[in-house]
Amino acid sequence: MSHLSERPEKPVVGVSMPHESAFQHVTGTALYTDDLVQRTKDVLHAYPVQVMKARGRITALRTEPALAVPGVVRVLTGADVPGENDAGMKHDEPLFPDEVMFHGHAVAWVLGETLEAARLGAAAVEVDLEELPSLVSLQDAIAAESYHGARPLMVHGDIDAGFADSAHVLTGEFQFAGQEHFYLETHAALALVDENGQVFIQSSTQHPSETQEIVSHVLGVPAHEITVQCLRMGGGFGGKEMQPHGFAAIAALGAKLTGRPVRFRLNRTQDLTMSGKRHGFHAKWKIGFDADGRIQALDATLVADGGWSLDLSEPVLARALCHIDNTYWIPNARVAGLIAKTNTVSNTAFRGFGGPQGMLVIEDILGRCAPLLGLDPMELRERNFYQPGQGQTTPYGQPITQAERISTVWQQVQDDAGIADRKREIAAFNAAHPHTKRALAITGIKFGISFNLTAFNQGGALVLIYKDGSVLINHGGTEMGQGLHTKMMQVAATTLGIPLHKVRLAPTRTDKVPNTSATAASSGADLNGGAIKNACEQLRGRLLQVAASQLGGNASDVRIVEGVARVLGSDKELAWDDLVRTAYFQRVQLSASGFYRTEGLHWDAKSFRGSPFKYFAHGAAATEVEVDGFTGAYRIRRVDIVHDVGDSLSPMIDIGQVEGGFVQGAGWLTLEDLRWDTGDGPNRGRLLTQAASTYKLPSFSEMPEQFNVTLLENATEEGAVYGSKAVGEPPLMLAFSVREALRQAAAAFGPAGASVDLASPATPEAVYWAIESVRGADAKRDVSEIPAGVTALSNA
Amino acid sequence: MVAARITVNGEEKQISPAAPHTTVLDFLRDRGLTGTKEGCAEGECGACSVLVARPGVNKPTDWVAVNACLVPVASLDGQEVITSEGLATAGEPGTPPALHPVQEEMAVRGGSQCGYCTPGFVCSMAAEYYRPDRCAHDEGSADHAEGDAEHGPNGFDLHSLSGNLCRCTGYRPIRDAAFAVGEPTDEDPLAQRREQAPPAAVATEYSQDDSTFLRKDTLAETLQVLRERPDAVVVAGSTDFGVEVNIRSRRAECVVAIDRLPELRELRVESDYIEIGAALTLTEIERRLDGDVPLLAELFPQFASRLIRNSGTLGGNLGTGSPIGDSPPVLLALEASLVLADADGERVVPLADYFTGYRQSVRRPGELIRAVRVPLPLSPITAFHKIAKRRFDDISSVAVAFALDIEGGVVRKARIGLGGVAATPIRSFATEEALEGKPWSAETVEAAARVLRGEGTPMSDHRASSLYRSAMLGQSLLKLYAQTTEAVSS
């Protein structure tokens, strides 16, 4: 067992416990960024001036009418920017644009004494626009060959030979929708300037260091003049990885120019119309199978809808390509990627970061092809799993080292869920019910952990022990509900050998730990846990020396367990508080900064080859649905999941991540339906689903009626802190099982062996058209009854 | 007139200087009670849920959860509100407060992740915790001893959380918390509060700058105000106007509240009709009818969320005249009439004659809907089919309500109300004709379904395509037929 993964006696990691802020959450006392406004004097409110056209050049911007509104203090425009007018890392995202690039693009911000004054001021700003042609949909962008950024190509083996060896070659297209993050807390920041001109920004951000970096270049000052703090977020899901920076820069700029605190909080409509979302994709594919259904070759082109600027589209696309294999051995592959440039919001990180999109393509292919190959979908999937001991690599060249876990979780979920019996029950039910059908589908996942870009795989921490024995930890990760802080406190208590109540955690700040990576890519616990462990080991090493001097014996024989130091083989004890006080009087340093970098990674973006991931997370889900043949409406009857989190750091937290990720994934694939006005009328480019009343998240009614989540046992991961595995993103992709179950249930309304195209999201309407298409395949039905547009809908 | 005041967590606060359009949510946050959150500002997410003391159905006072983002704070003059901060009991100085039982269950079972929706969930859950008939209802019923998918063994109705969204947990731990809460103790101050009279409605005239919020004691006074101020916006639960204020920045010079007028809050059963006061909340109607009108009973769980039903009224749903309101199709199928009142008196208008165009009706300026009359006897076979993307708390793509009399296998009478297919809710007279006098058979139903499919001019939008909407009209009749015949055969 590696040093990193080994757990000491009576570890605090592995103990099931609620979120460290649960008490504050339930009493309403947990503070979020905008709650601080009530505690700050003389705050100005910032409100955006949004232009409601898909694209156009600004020919005039008149701010005087806004300044005439009572309570308006200032209007911020591009002329006010002392540094660089850019909110991104790719120099393609002007903070104050000259050209409106999407419907709702903010071109100026109004500062008011009250939110009402700022709103009225923003409405009074006059913008003259020379309208320009726009590309709103992904299809339009593909037709116009409007692309930006990298065009990666992943090549593996020889696809021509692969297709030549194939008994069946099938082709298809699939376009699927993106997803709105809909964190319950919208984007918010509060900026203050102190007597030295130092800017302090409270921001709801997953990436405080990058918020700092962008504010610094917008203000034209060095990073050390900017401090960013994130208390906690009311959800992030990737939506606060890149997107908060420009907004925080507006607040900082306003504070710098007025000398007063400036706050902004987007309302829900502003958040929906101004911030990026999960990328929708278009995929075109050709796949070859041998006579037994084994994949011989895959040729695919994936186009991501990047929106108006690049943002994180390049790494999102890279991760999509790196996950098109999912759990399947594809000996010959050629997969090309493109990023469409459209006049919509700039799409960004969202839980899974392209991985779900790549995996959805292969799962959709297998779901559609299984009936055509005459195979049960479960059988087809199983036949194509990576196999242990074959020296197989992913299409980008990373060796598969835990292939056995793919079939282990697959088999265990079948046993746990009683699949064999339930398949028989479902067949009997379907035979007896002409208008209602049930189906059960299992899908598995393999998700690569680490940032594709090797440099980001580092973390930092600062651990302080006060002379009364209490411990304060700081680390570079942010808390967005995923329970990172809980796990980090458990890691610190475990490494130091003290009870959890001795450890407190301070909010994430850039002046405590510098140059941090985003809390993203599921890496928060791996990177920051490694760093905290490192800092605590330094401190423990010093304290063991002190303890040895007090207890007699060698430092290497001292153990600190549950807050008591003992020498092996001796009854003498030294309590933690006494040990710490003694260390202080011996002038031993009681603070340490910790650092961690993930070893063994390499990635060449140009050749699209390497081993970018430290390990893979695995899981499998079995989902049973029931579909109403009259309407296409459906219910999720039962879900069983077996998921691999290594040895869990905090089981209740991890189960929460698995369940929450699954339901969020199910939302993406079934219910959440982003629609834009693609017509040529005056509202072209407008997001039609720009409120909670029109963009529907899963509610209680979408929760599986039975929901059983099991964490894979004896799953120690050698390459991560205390043997754990990352958990934030992977479970989202377990929801493929919902989509595949819906596909199979729709198929059950038709003759055996029908292949079903299912739109994504698979709304009740989409399922209804899928049912109608298979009913149409039945010779007894009049095919003309199927409404036109079915094909268009399933690919829309 | 006494200055407008509100009691929050036992502490009385002056509403001034809040602007009259200020919501309870913004008022609380401005006063430092930041536990109440804004997630959507349109009554969809429930992050702003708070408890309000209202006249009770089974006890003198009920604790009712409402969306603080929709309710103007001036409308709660003289009322009592509890927030998530107020549910916990203060401990000795220096010690943390004792958690309320619902807070305790939510905390220890992992019911919070990011925590932003949690205070709202806690308040909605507390309201269900204090519902007087929660456990009593289920004790007598063996079926419910173990609960079902939507009811816990403790009688907890998950529909009480249908207006609360969580983006993190996937809901399972929240359900577990809800199903684990026990009974309030006798010492519980909020349980005790239910035994006392509710806060009385208080006549209010609250003005700031050029804007006024008005509440009168009687219908007569209110109708006089409406005669003098025909521009006044009339609100009951504010579930529609609150959205206008927040999302479309609508500001009104004069808002008149009618939700506590006693004349609009009666429910009477006469020999040939039931009269339902227009300002009774949907929850009050649901609990007081207790299934006596099965078609309404089928409607209520599908009508928005519990949070909205706790404020929204039939008068409001009909008064806004939305073509996609859920009550009109049902009331059309029930052949309901409206009692309209103005300063000169009353008139009764059949609902089928009420709507004249998109959000327009025969209701004159200065006229109020006082009550809805549902004629008796009721048709024995009724059904409400709401087609939407989401099962709880969504807006209809189309809605179809049926009320049928079938005797000896022949359809004697058919009444069908439709929503979402035209500029107004409509009766499907052609389909009714295609059914009446015919045998209730597959042949009749298929022919009638073809007629029904051709009703109205459904449009394509973000909710559904016109093709799907039309298809669902016909499908709803086929489904009803399948359900009635399957019920007979089984």
Automatic annotation (TrEMBL), chain A:
InterPro entries: Ald_Oxase/Xan_DH_a/b, Ald_Oxase/Xan_DH_a/b_sf, Ald_Oxase/xanthine_DH-like, AldOxase/xan_DH_MoCoBD1, AldOxase/xan_DH_MoCoBD2, AldOxase/xan_DH_Mopterin-bd_sf, Xanthine_DH_Mopterin-bd_su. Keywords: 2Fe-2S, Iron, Iron-sulfur, Metal-binding, Oxidoreductase. Signal peptide: none annotated. The keyword Transmembrane helix does not apply. Belongs to the xanthine dehydrogenase family. This is Xanthine dehydrogenase large subunit. Its cofactor is [2Fe-2S] cluster; Mo-molybdopterin cytosine dinucleotide; Mo-molybdopterin; FAD. GO terms for molecular function: 2 iron, 2 sulfur cluster binding; iron ion binding; molybdenum ion binding; xanthine dehydrogenase activity. It is an enzyme of class 1 (oxidoreductase). It comes from the Bacteria. Residues 27-133 form the Aldehyde oxidase/xanthine dehydrogenase a/b hammerhead domain. NCBIfam families: xanthine_xdhB. Its EC number is 1.17.1.4.
